[in-house]
Design a protein that fits this description.
- The chain is built from five helices and ten strands; from the N terminus they run ββββαββββαβαβαα.
- It is α+β, with helices and mostly antiparallel strands.
- The chain has one domain: VC0467-like, CATH 3.40.1740.10.
- A hairpin with a 4-residue loop joins β7 and β8.
């Protein structure tokens, strides 16, 4: 059977099953930016980093216009390239140096210009700033899904930008009608 190369699970949430104990992904919700025959790439959207946006501004030598921005949450986007910044954001008419369009309304930008724009109040209204990303090699994610490691379902901006961090795992699962509290922590088939 030939899979459509471009679609697969792009613009989907990967929701960790309760039994997944890997500390990088325990109770995580990952927004899949890209998924094709070569593998998959996503950003974990419910794992706050120990430091806030102010730290990133300092490292990049950017002075924000609004001091409140320094208190914003930065996320652990995943274990790959943990020193690199990625901004998951709604697409606007602005053009950034390195943006990958992930869906009709969202993009992932990995260039400093969007952080500067955010600091000066000119960035997208909705955004999530992460360090690092989650990556899977060819066929790896499909195999993990077969092993009941992940649930997957269509992503919504609402869970990424508007839902409190502590509720995103349950909220993403409820989009596909799953109550995670009813799933046992035992690995294997229910």
């Amino acid at each position: 059977m030939h899979m459509d190369v471009d679609s697969k699970l792009s613009n989907h949430f990967l929701i960790a099953m309760p039994a997944l104990a890997d500390p990088d992904f325990f109770h995580s919700v990952t927004y899949l930016c890209e998924h094709n025959e070569e593998g998959a790439m996503g950003i974990v959207v419910n794992r706050p980093h120990e430091f806030q946006l102010g730290e990133l501004f300092r490292q990049l030598e950017i002075t924000p216009e609004d001091p409140a921005l320094t208190k914003l949450t930065v996320y652990h986007g995943g274990p790959v390239q943990p020193e690199s910044g990625f901004v998951l954001h709604e697409l606007t008419d602005d053009q950034w140096e390195a943006t990958m369009s992930t869906s009709d309304g969202l993009g992932l930008t990995a260039s400093k210009d969007i952080i500067e724009a955010i600091a000066h109040g000119k960035g997208p209204k909705n955004y999530l700033i992460a360090l690092g990303y989650a990556g899977w090699g060819a066929g790896q994610l499909e195999e993990e899904i077969k092993q009941n490691t992940w649930l997957s379902g269509p992503a919504t901006d609402n869970v990424i930008f508007d839902t409190p961090i502590s509720q995103r795992w349950e909220a993403a699962a409820s989009l596909i009608g799953v109550d995670l509290s009813l799933i046992s922590n035992e690995a294997g088939h229910a």
